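The instructor's notes for this session suggest beginning with a concrete chain rather than abstract definitions. Hand out the sequence below and ask the class to guess, before any prediction is shown, which regions might be ordered.
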Amino acid sequence: MDAEILRSVSRSFYLSIRFLPAQLREPIALAYVLARTTDTVADTAQISGNVRMETLKLLSNGIQGTASRDVVVGLIASFVSLQRNVSERQLLESLPDCLTCLEGMEHADRNDIRLLLEKIARGQMLDLQRFDNPQEIRALNTAAELDEYTYLVAGCVGEFWTRLCFRHVRQFSILTEDEMLALGKRYGMALQLINVLRDAGSDLRAGRCYFPEHELTAVHLTPSQILSEPERFQPIYRIWLEKAKAGLTSGMEYSRAIQNRRVRAATVLPALIGARTLALLNASGLAALQQTVKVARSEVRAMILSLALTLASRRRIDAIFDRAKL
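After discussion, reveal the predicted structure:
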C-alpha cells in the first residue's frame, strides 16, 4: 500500500494509522483506500447518477471478487480524467494495485475487508438513490434512516476495526469482543454524525438533507427553508449535536478498554478531533451552516504529540478529551 496515496487523501487518518503495529497497518490502510475509491466514484458529479450507481455496483462486485478485474479497472480508468483533485486521480489509478493487494491478504482479513466494503458501498448507493436530483433538496424520512446511513458508512468500520484487532493484537481489550463490537459501532456512527453536522450547510446546497423530515415537519420547516430560516432549525441541529456527543462517549470507553498503547492512541485520536469539532460547531451556532468548521492542524499535531509523549495513558487521553470539549 502506497503511503503517499493514503497521506494525500486523508492527512488525519494517515497520522492516526502511523501509531498502529505493522500487522494492522496494511489491512486497515487498504480498506480505507478502497472505501475512498468507492466514495470518489459516487461523488463524481460530472457523471449522471444512474451511471455512477452502475459503476459503483460493478466496483463493489470487483472488490468482492465476483466481477472481472479487467472490466472493473477499465471502467474506473474512465473516471480518472474527471477528477479535479490530483490526489483523487492518483487514488483511482491505484485501484489495480489495491485489488492485487486485497487478493494477497490472508483469508480472514480479506473477508473482513470485503464485508466492510459491501456495507460502505451499499450506504453510498442509498445516498445516490435518495438524493438523485441536486436541484431539489430532499430529506431523509426518519431518524432510523439516518442511523442506517451512519452505520453503513462508518459504524461498520468500528466493527471491522474491532474484529481485526482481536485477531491480530494479543490481549487487545479488557472488555469482551461483543462489548467492543457494540461500542465500536456506536463510535463509528458518532464520527459520521459529526461529519453530517459539520457539512450540513454544504450538503443542503448540494440538495442533501440528512436531518429527518418528520422532525422538520414538527417545527413547520421544509428542507429548502433551513438555510434561510436557521433559527427554526437550530433546536433540531442541537439535538443531533447531543447525540453525537453521546456517541463519542462510547468511543472514549472503547479506547480506554484497549491495552496496547499504540492501538489505543490510533483509536482515540478521531474521538479527540471529533470532540473538538463538536465544540467548534457549538460555538459557531447558526454560522456553522455558512462556513467551514475544521480543527486547526496545529491542534491536531498537539494532540498527537501529547499522545506520543505520554504513551497514550488513559489519564492523558481523558484530559485531552475534556480540554477538547471546551
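Then share the key points. The chain has two domains: 1-130, 135-326. The beta strands are 138-139, 208-209.
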